[in-house]
Amino acid sequence: MSISIAPKLGYITVSPSLHFSDSRDFSSTDVPVADTSDSSLAIVNQKQAKRVGMLSSGLSLNTRLFGILQPNAFGISAIRHTLTPAVSFSYDRQMYGDNPDDKRLYATFNISNVFEMKTIPEAEGKEGTKINLLNVGLGSSYDFTADSMNLSNLGMNFRTGLGRVFDINGGANFDFYKLEESSPGRFNRVNKFELSENGRLARLTNFNIRFSTSLSGEKKKSGNQQTQRDSSAGVQPVRSRSYDSMAEPDFSIPWQLSLDWSYSESRNPQVTRSSSINGNLDFNLTEKWKFAVASGYDFVNQEFVYPRMNISRDLHCWTMNFSWTPIGQYRSYQFEIRVKASQLQDLKVTKSGSDRGIY
């Protein structure tokens, strides 16, 4: 049974909720029972039903604040900052069952920041272009029922772009509590604030950032459809591409290039880093032949990520794919001919091979 409403008190949205659940667990247990006739023990299987009643309640409050700057210069009409603070309280308790004293009370805090820009219209009567400059979010929680270290880590995430050419996103985590060495080479969190011990609000535990971009040629017209082209002259949003993908090739795009660089760092307190770049390139040799290659480089281990090549041929109602990984741990090949129609995707002929043999 659940009850939830979302009334608005002025500029604040209040969302209380209440949920109650009753569950039953039918189980059996072997219980030793004394036999009075010969003083022996007999094992008796006893069946019993356990009932557990859980009550969950919550209260969320959030609002939205706006700040607008209108420079009307350098092609910028206005810059808007949207701040969305939110706080929620949750209380969970087992009303009856095997552990009726089990309860938890905690609060969650989140702050979302969105920075947007609007350009000056190029001509009278036209609308300016809206551009999302930066998204930044922060969040943490506080456990009132914990006996120590009530605060959880502070999480931060961000996302931005550079002229719609690059997509940049990342995140970080910060710990409010101190890390102490309990034994040689082993560290544990202790109930001491970083602010009082080291004069800083929190310590960085991990960080990651990712730069990515994707460019492609102009998509060919199909029938009466208009040519589809990205608003940024061929630059398209980045999409993750799997080396193992045998997806249907798109012959309407003459070429496509995507690059992705990522970096991550973890401190516990030893610093562990990873950094790599991955690239994908595919292009049409002819209207019916498409060639694709993907590879990457690991900067930390100073080695290449296993390359993968794929050749596709449009056979009218059929599609041929040949995939080959020439080196590395996953050295293999796969040859496949399948029907294009989605209803007949299981109609195909496949031949594969790897270091473990042909199968």
Write the layout of secondary structure elements.
Blueprint: E1 2-4, E2 8-9, E3 12-35, E4 40-62, E5 65-69, E6 76-96, E7 103-119, E8 130-143, E9 154-162, E10 166-175, E11 177-183, E12 186-193, H1 194-198, E13 203-216, E14 255-267, E15 271-284, E16 289-298, E17 303-315, E18 318-325, E19 332-339, E20 348-354, E21 357-358
Antiparallel strand pairs: 1-3, 2-3, 3-4, 4-6, 5-6, 6-7, 7-8, 8-9, 9-10, 10-13, 11-12, 13-14, 14-15, 15-16, 16-17, 17-18, 18-19, 19-20, 20-21
Tell me what you see in this structure.
The longest helix has 5 residues, at 194-198. It is built from 1 helix and 21 strands. It is mostly beta strands.
β-strand amount: over 45%
User: How many individual helices?
Assistant: 1
Number of strands: 21
Our Rg estimate from Cα atoms comes to 30 Å
**Which segments are poorly predicted (pLDDT under 50) over 5 or more consecutive residues?**
223-247
Mean pLDDT: 81
- Element order, helices and strands? EEEEEEEEEEEEHEEEEEEEEE
